[in-house]
Design a protein that fits this description.
With 316 residues, the protein is α+β, with helices and mostly antiparallel strands. The chain has two domains: 187 residues, Alpha-Beta Complex (Lambda Exonuclease, Chain A); 74 residues, no CATH class. 33% of the residues lie in helices and 22% in strands. The chain is built from ten helices and 15 strands. It has a five-stranded mixed beta sheet with strand order 2-5-6-7-8. The chain has a four-stranded antiparallel beta sheet with strand order 12-13-14-15, with no helix packed on it. Helix 1 crosses helix 3 and helix 6 packs across helix 7. The radius of gyration is 23 Å and the shape is globular. The structure holds iron/sulfur cluster (2 copies). One iron/sulfur cluster binds next to helix 2, helix 8 and helix 9.
Length: 316
């Protein structure tokens, strides 16, 4: 009789998922993405842009995101079979279509642009592909993208606004049934402008904007990756974006302390003189020197941020 194989292959499974986590890295994006600017909470957008919270997706989730990306290839083929011309890359660069604004700090990549669609053959469309779970897909069919997925609608408005294309095609697939839902949106220049202004304000804000709710159990807060920092006492990530010396400027970031530009890799590393933006510390600033800030916590403890200092004492 053949010997049974070892118990369920957890090490292999774990290694498969771990590879996705390693590949995904910290999840920090250099720019504020058009795909998220529709988020209702401006503080959440500021935390995203300021690299406050490291991405904590499991390998399984990251693999699922990849499945969504792989679906795009099929959808391009599906659209082409209707006779449409679909350009999923910019023929001039051979790369994805990109849009950018606010000194390069805001932008995103279009899935495709298309012309020759049966509904409006002579009009160029921005094309956005999305996959949905069963419940989300049902809501989309029922309410339309603007109501059911305002973040996706905002993303398309930005793409139309920044490319000058006046229509967009939203192509959604249900992951459970493979059913396809298609919608066209018309450019709304006022909405495009409003979203750019929103991005600009978030990018240029030296401090986090107000919370969408002070209630930690508010539904958007419960789903928010920044919850424990925003409503609790989780320590933010230590990098140049959370340091009070950093400032976004046209085309990049500068360190006001060292008086020089910061590359993306340098921003990730930070330096020993890092000082948290005070609003990120869940305590009251009570004193400060050239390269340190002292905070008093609610229980009276004093913590000194700066130059490697980690002293914690009791307020006198
Ligand atoms: S926890 Fe709530 S208030 Fe805080 S960033 Fe997230 S959504 Fe905004
Ligand atoms: S002081 Fe250091 S951590 Fe702060 S912005 Fe400058 S280089 Fe980055």
């Amino acid at each position: 009789m053949m010997a049974p194989l070892s118990p369920p292959p957890a090490p292999t499974l774990n290694a498969i998922y771990a590879a996705y986590v390693v590949e995904a890295g910290d999840g920090f994006r250099d720019h504020l993405g058009a795909s998220i600017v529709g988020k209702e909470c401006r503080r959440a957008l500021w935390y995203d842009f300021r690299w406050v919270t490291r991405a904590r997706f499991t390998g399984r989730m990251l693999r699922l995101f990849e499945t969504g990306k792989r679906e795009e290839e099929r959808l391009v083929r599906d659209l082409r079979r209707t006779g449409a011309t679909v350009l999923d890359t910019d023929p001039e660069t051979g790369r994805q279509w990109r849009v950018s604004a606010v000194g390069g700090h805001f932008g995103g990549s279009l899935d495709a642009v298309a012309i020759g669609l049966l509904e409006a053959p002579k009009t160029w469309h921005v094309v956005e592909f999305k996959t949905h779970g069963l419940k989300s897909f049902a809501a989309l069919k029922n309410d339309g993208v603007e109501r059911a997925k305002p973040q996706h609608a905002a993303q398309m408005q930005i793409y139309m606004h920044l490319t000058g294309i006046t229509r967009s095609l939203y192509v959604a697939v249900c992951k459970d049934t493979d059913e396809i839902h298609i919608e066209r949106l018309r450019a709304d220049p006022a909405e495009g402008e409003r979203l750019i202004t929103k991005a600009k304000r978030v990018i240029n804000a030296p401090r986090p904007p107000v919370k969408i709710s002070d209630d930690p159990a508010w539904w958007q807060c419960r789903l928010c990756e920044h919850h424990d920092q925003c409503h609790g006492d989780r320590v933010p990530e230590r990098n140049c974006r959370t340091c009070l010396h950093s400032t976004p400027v046209e085309g990049g970031w500068i360190c006001e302390h060292w008086k020089r530009p910061l590359s993306s890799a340098e921003q990730r590393r930070g330096c020993l003189l890092h000082l948290f933006v005070p609003d990120l510390v869940p305590a009251e600033p009570v004193d400060a020197g050239e390269d340190w800030v002292a905070y008093r916590f609610a229980d009276g403890r004093i913590w000194i941020d700066g130059a490697g200092a980690t002293a914690v004492g009791t307020a006198s």
